[in-house]
């Protein structure tokens, strides 16, 4: 293993990734893959909390691996794997379950939101932050690139590391969330946070037609000089200097500005769609290799954990 710091993160295969996922987190996976020892997974165990259809889950999970290759993650630099191929994380999550109290988990935003909406909450949703802590801590990760909505989960992982260390002796490193302020919460086509559940997304691997439909559907307020919802998305792919001039020159011309955004988005997305198509054939062997490598890597950590908590370890 190299002496680089360790970076860990994942994406849940519960729908096509959107440009909020990309700018908030996935782009950082690519930008940082040379400077860190990177381990990026598909959070398919987490997806089980909402997808209870085997073929759908398999297809979505394979899709996220292809997405990773499409955005430019290079398997010779970044280990790509399925969360379920490293079953140690589920074992570690159980160990953490026995340390963490119910009130701690009841503080989680995701749980509180689901409760406020009177959703039926399965134990997996309640326990979600614990599994996430296991994903991260099993690697002794230094940094975890994520969007703002995951900040609390990383804070919980740090708390869990401290609690374990306090109970059983120094074992886990406290990871740091890596959140970039300007893209911490990427807005969707309606100005709210872009989210798979709000129907306001621009898919990362969108077709030209999907891009046109999403952008033309942006609601603009005719009282504004600058169509804010259009500008905020445009800002992701063009410099602000450039945009301020453009939006001043085309003041009030919403349709034209949308047209320019559509062209810019197409130019930005098309090369990734192309690379995804070219690389998709490699996805299967990449995850087989990645899973094998990660099982070997976390084996010693889990041996140490079992020893510390008193589970007798047999090779
Ligand atoms: P997921 O799949 O919902 O989202 C993947 C990443 O995208 C970020 N994100 C955003 N960033 C900025 N603006 C937005 N509108 C936006 N929407 C989503 C998320 O913050 C995330 O970084 N629980 C995680 C998956 C996970 C994980 C982990 C991540 C499981 N275990 C361990 C890191 C480490 C999730 O559901 O992400």
Can you describe this structure?
With 315 residues, the protein is mainly alpha-helical. It folds into 2 domains: 6-183 and 280-309, Rossmann fold, CATH 3.40.50.620; 196-276, Tyrosyl-Transfer RNA Synthetase (Orthogonal Bundle), CATH 1.10.240.10. Helix content is 54%, strand content 7%. The chain is built from 13 helices and 5 strands. The chain has a 3-stranded parallel β-sheet. It has a two-stranded parallel sheet with strand order 4-5. Helix 1 (19-31) links the parallel strand 1 and strand 2 (37-42). The longest helix is centred in the C-terminal third of the chain and has 27 residues, at 283-309. The mean pLDDT is 96. The site of tryptophanyl-5'AMP has 25 residues, from strand 1, helix 1 and helix 7.
Taken as a percent bin, the fraction of beta residues is 5-15%
Radius of gyration over alpha carbons? 21 Å
Strands across the major sheet, in which order? 1-2-3
Work out the number of β strands: 5
CATH class descriptor name of the largest domain: Alpha Beta
Element-level helix/strand string? EHEHHEHHHHEHEHHHHH
Distinct bound molecules: tryptophanyl-5'AMP
Overall SS class: mainly alpha
Instruction: State the fourth-level CATH superfamily of the largest domain.
Output: HUPs
- Domain count: the total is 2
Q: What is the correct CATH architecture of the largest domain?
A: 3-Layer(aba) Sandwich
Briefly note the CATH topology name of the largest domain.
Rossmann fold
Major beta sheet, specifics? Answer: 3 strands, parallel
- Which percent bin holds the helix content? 40-55%
Amino- and carboxy-terminal Cα gap: 22 Å
Number of helices: 13
